[in-house]
Amino acid sequence: MNLYNIDTVVKGELLRHKLSIHHYIQRAYLALRFLRSINFDSAYYTKTVTLSITANKVTLPVDFVGVVRLGIKNGQFLTRLEPDANLLSNTDAAAEDVDGVGFWYPNINKYGQNLGGYFGYSHVSQNSYKILFEENKILINNEVTADETEIVLQYITDGLNVGVPYEESQDLAVYIHPYAFDALVAYMDWKISSEGNRFVSRELKQEYYNELRKYRARINPTTANMIKRSLRKSYHAAPKN
Amino acid sequence: MTIGILAERIHRIYSGGIPSLDGGIKMADIKHLVIDNINSLLKVEMISLNKQEGDNYPTNLMIATYEDIDVVAFNTVQSRAELPAIPVSLPLGMGVWSVAPDTQTTTAHDVFVPLQTSQWSLIKDFSPLVGSGKVLGNYVYTLDGKYITFPTDIHVAMPKIVIKLVILDISTLGDFDLLPMPADYSDQVIKNVLSILGVVPPVEDVINDGNTQK
Asked: What is the spatial distance between Cα B63 and Cα B95, in angstroms, rounded to a whole number?
C-alpha cells in the first residue's frame, strides 16, 4: 500500500515555505498530533490482533484507544463478545455463577403441583468482557476462557505506529494515507500561522476543515451497494397463509 | 578581493599615505576588524534583506564548511562535538546551519535535526516522535556553548561529522585567499572599519534643533 512517510511530508513543507531544518521539530510534532486526531474518527483505520488469555485477562496493546470488535475465532468468522459492566475483575467464580438468572422458578400451585411452565428466566450472554483501564487489561468471562485461549481484538489506534517499516524494522517511520496529505498540510499551515499572532487566520482554519471534509469523503468506505444491502437486510422470505 | 588587499587599503587611508612600520595599528588588528564587520553585514543582509524577500536561506558566501569534526562520548549517555568556530547569532540557532554525518565514515546522508536547548526534555518521552535518540528517524542535537550535544551516544555510529556554520572565519583565510564577500561590500566595510578607527568622523547634526543625528 502506498503510504506517505511523515518525515518526508514535513521536510517537503519546509521546502515549500523556503524554511531550513531548524523549523522541523515543531512541524513534526504538529503532524503527529494531526495524525492522532484523525485516527480517532476519520481514518477508518483499525488494527486487528490475536491476543492470548492469561488468568482470564488480556493485556491491552500499547496503541489501544477503543474497541471496535472483540470476540473469539469461529472458523473464518468472529463470534463477538459483548461488554458487561457487572463482570468482577477479581473473581475466580465458577462458570455457573451467572449474573441475572436468580429469579427463575417453575409455576407451582398452593398444593405444590407443577402446573407447567417456567418463569423469570432471562437471556444472559456469557460471551462477555470488561475493559479494566486501571489494569490496562481486558477481563474475559469465565465461560469464554473455559474453552478459549485467545481472543481477536479489532481496535481503534492512535495511528502513530502505523506502517510496516515501523513494526518490522523499528526505524520509527510514521506513515499517513495519501488522502490525508492535503489535510495534514492545511493543518500545519493553520497551526503555524497562529503562533505569535493574536488572531488566528480564519481562512487557514476554514481551509483545514475543508480539506478534512474532503479527506473524510475520500476515505469513507460506504458504497451504494453497502446501503442497498443494509436496507435489504429487513426483508426475509416468509410462508404465505 | 582578498583580506590582504582590503586591510592594506584601510591601513593606507588610516595612515594618510604609505603606512609606517611603527604606525598606531597593526595589520592583524585591521583584518580582524574587517572580518567582524563583514559578519555583521552578512547577518543584517540575511535578516533584513533576504528574509524580507521571503528568502530564509543564507547565501553561499555566508556558509563555512568544516569537515572531519570528531564526535566524542560525553556524560556516559550522550556525545558531543566541539564547534570549530562560534557562528553568527541567528534565530533558532541557525548560525549552525547544518550538522550532518561525514559520508566518508558513515552511509547516512540526512542532516541532523536541531533542537533548542532543553527541548529534548520536552519531547523525549513522546513516542513515536522520539525513539532511540532520534526524531522520526532523524538524529537530533542541541547547542550548548561551544559544543554540539547529541542526546544519545552516537560517537560509535557517527565518529565524524560535517558542520556548516554561518560565519566568515578569519582562521580559514590567508592573505591571498579570495574573500567570500559580496562585491558590493568593500566600500561599506572600509567605511565602517575606518569609522571604528576614528578616521571618519561621525555625522554632524547640521540643524541646530537639539535632535542629534545618528
From this structure: 9
- The per-residue pLDDT for range A154-166, each reduced to its tens digit, is 988 876 654 443 3
> Per-residue b/e over B4-22, b at no fewer than 16 CB within 10 Å?
bebbebbbebbeeeebeee
Give this prediction's pTM.
Answer: 0.74
C-alpha A124 chain-centroid distance: 25
Establish if A8 touches chain B: CB-CB under 8 angstroms: no
Q: Are B62 and B167 in contact (CB under 8 A)?
A: yes
- Interchain pair A174, B119: CB under 8 A: no
Nearest to A28 among B54, B94, B136 (CB): B136
Exposure string for B141-175, b = 16+ CB within 10 A, e = fewer? bbbeeeebbbbbbbbeebbbbbbbbbbbbbeebee
C-alpha grid cell, residue B146: 561551544
Residue with cell 503510504: A3
Determine the Cα–Cα distance for residues A187 and A210; give it in Å rounded to an integer. 11
What does the DSSP 8-state code read for residue A135? T
Q: Contact at 8 Å (CB) between A121 and A107?
A: no
Task: Please tell me the distance from the alpha carbon of residue A120 to that of residue A123, in angstroms, as a whole number.
Answer: 10
Residues 6+ apart with CB under 8 A from A182: A211, A214, A215
- The Cα A23–Cα A31 span in angstroms is 13
Q: How far apart are CA B73 and CA A44, in angstroms?
A: 46
CA nearest B193: which of B2, B10, B41? B10
Q: How far apart are the first and last CA of chain B?
A: 30
Taking CA–CA distances from A7, the nearest residue in chain B reads B136
Cell of A49: 490482533
In B2-89, where do the E strands start and end?
A: 63-70, 72-74, 78-82
Lowest mean pLDDT among A129-143, B20-34, B132-146: B20-34
B-chain CB neighbours of A23 within 8 Å are: 92
